[in-house]
Design goal:
oxidoreductase, 9 strands, dioxygenase activity, 2Fe-2S, monooxygenase activity, about 0% helix, elongated
């Protein structure tokens, strides 16, 4: 089965620090922009089914060793019901990490020419024949070729 790609937004719709929740194939998916990188997670907490992607995005605490702590940019998604935290980049939980994980999806930015041009639509297998059209002396001209 080939990958199914969906256009879900333009870059300016999801600036750094923002998110957008969309429905694709009856699944709600949250798309997050973390410092210019995009990540997508299923909008369902694996614990009790809360709308996970509506939770707070928090910074992670990083350390290279004792005495060194710093806050990284926001990349932990906190479940709005019970506060469980998931890494936005991978869906990995930090509460029972061996058991709990939320589904993550790959996200990329493509040029407008690569996309179908119709947000939310997937190109079908059939393509209708088209012809070049131009305007000459205020008349619309269809070119059927030679």
């Amino acid at each position: 089965m080939s990958a199914r790609r969906y256009v879900v937004a333009t870059e300016d719709e999801i600036p750094p620090g923002a998110r957008k929740i969309v429905t694709i194939e009856r699944r709600e998916i949250g798309i997050f922009n973390v410092d210019g990188e995009y990540f997508a997670l299923r909008n369902r907490c694996p614990h009790q089914g809360a709308a996970l992607c509506e939770g707070h995005v928090l910074p992670a605490l990083e350390s290279s060793g004792p005495g060194d702590q710093r806050l990284a940019s926001g990349r932990l998604l906190q479940c709005p019901w019970h506060g469980w935290e998931f890494d936005v980049r991978s869906g990995q939980s930090w509460c029972e990490p061996d058991r709990m994980r939320v589904r993550a999806y790959p996200v990329g930015v493509v040029d407008a020419g690569e996309a179908s041009g119709f947000p939310g639509l997937v190109p079908g297998p059939h393509v209708a024949e088209t012809y070049p059209v131009r305007v000459e002396a205020r008349r619309v001209v269809v070119d059927l070729g030679g």
